[in-house]
Amino acid sequence: ERRGNLSGILNGIDTERFDPGADPTIAMKYSVRHADMRVKNKAALQERFGLAHDEHAMVIAYNGRLDEQKGISLLVATLKPLLDNLPFQFVAMGDGNPEYKKFFKELSEAYPGRVGVCLEYDENLPRMIYAGADAMLIPSRFEPAGLVQLEAMRYGAIPIARKTGGLADTVTDFDPAEQSGTGFAFTDFDSQALMIAMTRAYETFRNKPAWRALQKRAMAADFSWGSSAKEYAHLFEVALALHRRASVRS
């Protein structure tokens, strides 16, 4: 009965703390106009995770809880087949379910130089990952809001995300015909859907002009609290107007 009065407002991030142009935790500072300088951060990330140094390799990353809500079962089902068929590198950081930790540890042992993991919390490592990785995996089963996709886009790491909750509100699917979008979105909570999205991302990565334009769109997206605050102010004005009208009628 009250659904007409409900309003959703996007989450926001601290754009001063998450700023690739001033971040002291990354190897090379850069801006949307000089996103090509991210390659130095890729080299630092590869060194940190024991990956082969290759500036042309696509680095795909995961950063978050190792929990079924985050869709880790989809990664368990897809990563090995994809690593066997596509020459990308993979890094993961997170803590949580012991079985998932075991999976990622064994994955790094099975693909030395291509897979690196940190299975514990590190306060500064996420920004190093955002600055050096080409894409971020966010295959959540559900995600009311989500911050990883916002932080990753700020640094030019393209989200590969399931279209659910806040992820659907913030990641627009790449359209090669229109040259639009800020990431790669898939709808079904299904390993095949994730595999297709990751393959699309890999093929787009090989098209350097298209990928660079995609990065710039993602970095230019405004997810600051300043933007969300305007929505809150508008919501308060609407609520006050409704209250005044109700008072007049009574």
Offer a few descriptive terms:
single chain, 250 residues, alpha/beta, six-stranded parallel beta sheet, 6 strands
What's this, in brief?
By secondary structure, this protein is of the alpha/beta class. It has helices at residues 38-48, 72-85, 98-110, 125-132, 148-154, 165-170, 191-205, 208-220, 225-249; strands at residues 59-63, 89-93, 115-118, 135-138, 158-162, 184-186.
Can you characterise this structure?
45% of the residues lie in helices and 10% in strands. It is built from nine helices and six strands, in the order αβαβαβαβαβαβααα. The chain has a six-stranded parallel sheet with strand order 3-2-1-4-5-6, with helices on both faces. Strand 5, helix 6 (165-170) and strand 6 form a beta-alpha-beta unit. It starts with 37 loop residues before the first helix and ends with a helix.
